[in-house]
Amino acid sequence: MRYRQGLGACKRLHGILADNPDGPAGTTQREEDPPPVSVGTVPLEEPVAVSRGAVEQFWRRFRRDRVGLASAAFLVLLILLAVFGAPLAAAATGHAPDEQFPNGIDVNGLPLPPLSYELGPDGTPNTDGEFFILGTDTLGRDVLVRLLYGARVSLIVAFTATGVALLLGVPLGLVAGYFGGRLDAVISRAIVSAMAFPSMLFAVGLAAVIGPGLLNVIIVIALFSWYYPARMVRSAVVSLRNQQFVEAAVSVGASDRRIMLRHLLPQLTAPIIVYATGIIASNVLFEAGLSFLGLGVPPPTASWGQMLSDGVANGLYRVMPWGAFIPGFVLMLTTLAFNQLGDALRDAFAPRGGAS
Q1: Which DSSP letter does residue 168 get?
Q2: What are the backbone dihedrals phi and psi of residue 132, each rounded to the nearest 5 degrees, phi first?
């Protein structure tokens, strides 16, 4: 019986081969197989394509976030207005940021509301006189021009102080996280000790000692901002120093400096950028707080915090609310835009759930 079954299977196989001389179905001829690809045939543009693909993926994720796009557009517009719009507004209106107009306040010493002409000798608006789009302050100065020049001060202080804080915090966090041991213990204790104190209170005391000024404000804010990036970088390096790419670099004899700068630091670019946007927002508020207390940029230099202080002085906000509302609203929009931009960048660099 087994002999007959085997003989029948051989006959059926012979019939299949006779009907299909090229081989069984689903197979292809050897001469039609694609030629093997050697390493030398890989195009040189392949690494560039991979990098371009990562950028395209980031942009595709980022542009899906409409709030992030709106925040980025607002900040770009704000920077353009601060850099180019401030002198253009001063030239177009003929109002310098510190120029006082005697007819820019009424007989009671109150500032003019938005969309107002300066007052004539009889106390009525003079349509042939100066026009103030956002009104005037208590000294008769143009609020619009001062608002744009105040954006310059706030952005210069925020970006510069954040840059100094990153220059201090990132190397300290990188060294502490990579080497560990006593060095890590000393730097970590310094970070924890600095974060334990109320930064605003100590900043006010330090600013009162060294005096107001643009450079002094930058130094004060940077001294009370460096520990945030230091802590973040240290935590990231601790989780990365045992990865395989670090062990591979050590095995080929790479120095500690090369490993930190060429292997670890590029891995931290995205979180540093995301974290920096939050620090900038905090530093904008920091500068406004110091200027509000009279410890920031000295007058007559325009500053959002100083304008806010002038708007609430002596209960002025009760009868002229726009004096405090206008700089406060712009300040709120700026900090909100930086925070929303940071959230959008975080989701674009590291999408939730690993979705591309």
Answers
A1: H
A2: -120, 110
- Report how far residue 342's alpha carbon sits from residue 348's, in angstroms, rounded to the nearest whole number: 10
Instruction: Check whether 17 has a pLDDT greater than 90.
Output: no
Amino acid at 167: L
| Residue 199 to residue 192: CA distance in whole angstroms | 13
Comparing CA positions, the residue from 275, 267, 282 lying closest to residue 177 is 267
3-class DSSP assignment, residue 106? coil
- 11 alpha carbon, distance to own chain's centre: 77
Copy the structure tokens of residue 230: 């230091």
Domains of the chain: which residue ranges?
66-91+145-354, 100-140
Dist. CA 107–CA 123, nearest whole Å: 7
The pTM (predicted TM-score) of the whole model is: 0.78
pLDDT at 79 over 90: yes
CA distance 16 to 122: 113
Helices (H), the chain: 2-19, 46-64, 66-80, 86-93, 143-179, 181-196, 199-210, 214-223, 227-240, 244-251, 256-258, 269-292, 304-312, 322-349
Tokens of 323: 């004096």
The whole-angstrom separation of Cα 248 and Cα 28 is 42
Question: What are the pLDDT digits (tens) for 181-191?
Answer: 899 999 999 99
Cβ pair 307, 137 in contact under 8 A: yes
Of 1.10.3720.10, 3.40.50.150, 3.20.20.140, 3.40.50.300, the CATH number of 66-91+145-354 is 1.10.3720.10
| CA–CA separation, 299 and 294 (whole Å) | 9
Q: Which residue has the tokens 């900040």?
A: 75
